[in-house]
Amino acid sequence: MYDSLIYGQEPVPALPANEPVRSYAPGSPERAAIDAELRSMAADPIEIPLVIGGEEIRTGRLKEIRAPHDHSLVLGRYHEAGEAEAVMAAEAAAVAYRGWSETPFQERAAVFRKAADLISSGWWKTLNAATMLGQSKNAYQAEIDATCETADFFRINPALAERLYAEQPRSGAGERNLTDYRPLDGFVYAVTPFNFTAIAANLPSAPALMGNVVVWKPASTSVLSNWHLMRLYKAAGLPDGVINFLPGSAKSISAGVLSRPDLAGLHFTGSTAVFNSLWKSVADNLSTYRSYPRLIGETGGKDFVFVHPDADMDAAIAACVRGAFEYQGQKCSAASRLYLPRSSAARFLERLSEEISSISVGAPSDHGNFVNAVIDEAAFDTIVGYIERARANPSCRIVAGGGYDKSKGFFISPTLIVSDDPRSEPMASEIFGPVLTAYAYDDSDMPAAYALVDETTPYALTGAIFASDRSTIIEATGALRHAAGNFYINDKPTGAVVGRQPFGGARGSGTNDKAGSFLNLVRWTSSRTIKETFAPPTDWRYPFMG
Ligand code: NAD
């Protein structure tokens, strides 16, 4: 209010409240409801089509969906799209563009606001159960993702867009000036990762909210929950062809989409290597495009927890356990490298190892399990490769976990490695699994310790510092200014909430167009400036010429 008075603006309306998080505590109604939903979904495998222009398309090229925590559990099958279907989807999007790009904003927003309310009033069970079974998330992780973050994107993005549309130029005497926030001049290609149902929701829906049409390629390991999002859009009244759903071969679909003249944007979240390859393909096709495609990508991370000698050890340990091992460390923001002061590292590691040893691992249907399975065999093998190379590395010791078993599901024990080399592979590479690596820094040289955090990896996504003294907090916040796009003080580096911690990183972690903020939404508009003169001059001669 005070700032508004200073700048002479209207007070900014408050953002909608975040979706309340259900606890799933024993005896709670949500616990009974989700258990029933899990049983019914697991007993009833479904067949998932593509959706192009509102039509369900079955290619006959079928892939099985199995639960990561139980290979014998078949949850369904999906039809795979290829290059031909990608072309069809881009054409269907172009047809839908005519109506959708002219649909008034409040009508577009109403679709997503309705989707949010449908989630709150019942769809939460479907989205959570599909995420638990298909992506192996426990009830709480599914709740904060598939239900809460998704509903938050659907409610808060419209409110942020209203603020953007309200941003208008001044009009002088005798004129009217206007910014017309047009959608992009073509379609948006949304490519989503497996690890968050909410990201799969946001990447197509944020451009669609701004009047764009979308060809959406979901990850092949999250097709089940992503299909239910498509059903939700239909139930919320999204017109046919605005979002087209294309599970299938990433390479063939990209080949069909990226060479089209009307590609106007790429909304990507996933690994840095894949984003780089998509960027290169766009660059190779540059002369084909009608306009310069917007390239928005949120990519990998190697996220740090830095513990200062004056930190609260209990808080830092709890943050390490949650930050590194929730959802099996398969969060771009997961704590992955830990910096401890040499003076107290031994005690910290001993206590952290004890906590890690108490974590139970297993299927998400057993609510006692904090850690579930990693997403698929390829991920399992990659993570195990990192663990085994660390075991063989003379600079590394595995002090907790280190076990794994893929006989029933892809289970990897939460693992703590200690490395004497601050640039060893597990300290520097994104592992994307339940593995945390610690290094004890020399606490008599803090500038060198901060430099190490800043320079060890190409990424700059999230990071956390634990410290008590305010001057230490100020010093670390300054020294690590470019090391993380989301910086946490005395908190874990995961768990960003829409409307409260806009999310994204720079350097090798992406274009930093903060999901869940107007900074992202503005990228899906191409503004037109309109000037109208009410009484235009009728003589071209200026007075000075007299
Ligand atoms: P991924 O890069 O393997 O896949 C992401 C998407 O790209 C999937 O839909 C996949 O099918 C598709 N893809 C793969 N190869 C492709 C190609 N050649 N052409 C076009 N598309 C292709 O990532 P993932 O395993 O799904 O997710 C894990 C990665 O995502 C990690 O690196 C993680 O850090 C990152 N991530 C980042 C954020 C963030 O906000 N920064 C959030 C979530 C995940």
Write the layout of secondary structure elements.
Blueprint (H helix, E strand, L loop, with lengths): L1 H6 L21 H14 L3 E3 L1 E3 L2 E3 L4 E6 L2 E10 L3 H18 L4 H31 L3 H28 L8 E9 L3 E5 L5 H13 L3 E5 L5 H13 L7 E3 L4 H9 L4 E7 L2 H13 L9 E5 L4 E5 L5 H13 L9 E7 L3 H13 L19 H16 L3 E5 L3 E2 L5 E2 L2 E5 L5 H4 L6 E7 L4 H10 L3 E2 L1 E5 L3 H10 L6 E4 L16 E2 L10 H4 L3 E9 L13
Parallel strand pairs: 1-5, 7-8, 7-10, 8-9, 10-11, 12-13, 12-20, 13-18, 17-18, 20-21
Antiparallel strand pairs: 2-3, 4-5, 6-23, 14-17, 15-16, 19-22
The CATH topology label of the largest domain is Aldehyde Dehydrogenase, Chain A, domain 1
Portion of residues in beta strands equals 15-25%
Order of strands across the widest beta sheet? Answer: 14-17-18-13-12-20-21
Distinct ligand kinds: nicotinamide-adenine-dinucleotide
How would you characterize the largest beta sheet? 7 strands, mixed
CATH class type of the largest domain: Alpha Beta
| CATH arch. level architecture of the largest domain | 3-Layer(aba) Sandwich
What is the first-to-last residue Cα distance?
52 Å
CATH homologous superfamily grouping of the largest domain: Aldehyde Dehydrogenase, Chain A, domain 1
Low-pLDDT residue intervals, each spanning 5 or more residues: 1-8
Number of helices: 16
Number of domains: 2
Mean pLDDT: 97
| Record field, number of beta strands | 23
Structural class: alpha/beta
Radius of gyration: 25 Å
